[in-house]
Design goal:
Elements lengths: L6 E5 L5 H10 L6 H8 L5 E8 L4 E9 L3 E9 L8 H15 L4 E5 L5 H6 L3 E2 L3 E7 L10 E5 L3 H12 L4 H8 L6 E6 L2 E8 L6 E6 L2 H14 L5 E7 L3 H9 L5 E3 L2 E4 L10 E3 L7
Parallel strand pairs: 4-5
Antiparallel strand pairs: 1-2, 2-3, 3-4, 5-14, 6-14, 7-12, 7-13, 8-9, 9-10, 10-11, 11-15
Helix pairs in contact: 5-6
Length: 286
């Protein structure tokens, strides 16, 4: 569906960050400035599109990130006065064209209840839900005694570990995280091999991405995360409910899991290790 004559679409860049952040806040979402910068940076793996009115006002936005065969759609927002005019459909079509041109065969997103009909019309269907959980500081985190945890500055080795578990190459994103001087990228090793990693997010007491080969390694990483975030009474993560060992571990800790069925996907399943995913980054980044 083409845009109406009074609207036009263009690529966004970092100069658009404030207005995109304001659009996110207008629908009750956090700005997530660090995540917006990731989709606005110059790269052949990311695109962010904005729709503007004749007066130059940004009235719609959406982004796509390609991780090889796996792609993610995010930041899909249309200002209230421009809804039901085909803006969301036009932006989504542009994102899908970009992701497919980069070789993405599996495309995923996190949908609000209002957005689900749009995504369904473009071939998306519900997939395994996620669960929000907050692990309290006083949780009994029985860590793997053979694991050591340190701060990583080598995103390359983390990306090699991450790719077969996540299902795509997040090297650029992980490099930005490893270079953040304020929020550490924690790396767990067992017998000198990587056994997991965790990033303390830059938007509150949250973690993600968070990948671990076992709940015991996850516990070691969380314990160290609490050591770095002294102000946190708890750390929040969004666990795919298909991670059965992780779900059982949280239940054994007495941590409640709030399921959320907004995950949607289009295209065939890809090879990945859901049993190692303890938290995603944010919906727009996977």
């Amino acid at each position: 569906m083409p845009l109406p004559d009074d609207l036009s679409m263009r690529l966004a860049d970092e100069r658009d960050l404030p207005v995109i952040g304001a659009l996110r806040e207008s629908v009750g979402w956090s700005t997530h400035e660090w995540a917006l910068r990731a989709v606005l940076r110059p790269s052949d793996r990311v695109r962010c599109f904005v729709v503007t009115a004749r007066d130059g006002r940004v009235v719609g936005v959406g982004s796509g990130v390609a991780y090889g065969a796996l792609g993610f759609v995010g930041n899909m927002i249309v200002s209230e006065d421009k809804r039901r005019r085909g803006v969301g459909s036009a932006v989504l079509a542009a994102i899908l064209d970009f992701l497919e041109s980069r070789g993405c065969t599996r495309i995923e997103l996190f949908a609000t209840s209002e957005g689900r009909p749009l995504y369904a019309r473009h071939g998306f269907a519900h997939t395994d839900p996620s669960g929000m959980a907050t692990v309290p500081r006083d949780a009994s985190l029985d860590a793997d005694p053979d694991s050591t945890v340190d701060i990583s500055t080598d995103a390359t080795e983390v990306a090699r570990y991450d790719a077969p578990r996540f299902g795509g190459d997040r090297g650029e994103l992980l490099a930005a995280m490893a270079a953040d001087p304020d929020r550490p990228l924690l790396l767990a090793r067992r017998d000198a091999r990587i056994a997991g990693y965790l990033w303390l997010r830059a938007d509150g007491h949250r973690v993600g991405p968070f990948v671990a080969d076992s709940p015991q390694v996850a516990a070691a990483l969380l314990r160290e995360a609490f050591n770095h975030d002294r102000a946190a009474d708890g750390l929040t993560l969004n666990l795919p409910t298909s991670n059965v060992p992780g779900r059982r571990w949280l239940e054994e800790l007495g941590v409640g899991i709030e399921p959320w069925d907004g995950r949607m996907a289009r295209g065939p399943a890809i090879s990945r290790r859901d049993d190692t995913i303890y938290a995603n980054a944010v919906g727009a980044l996977g």
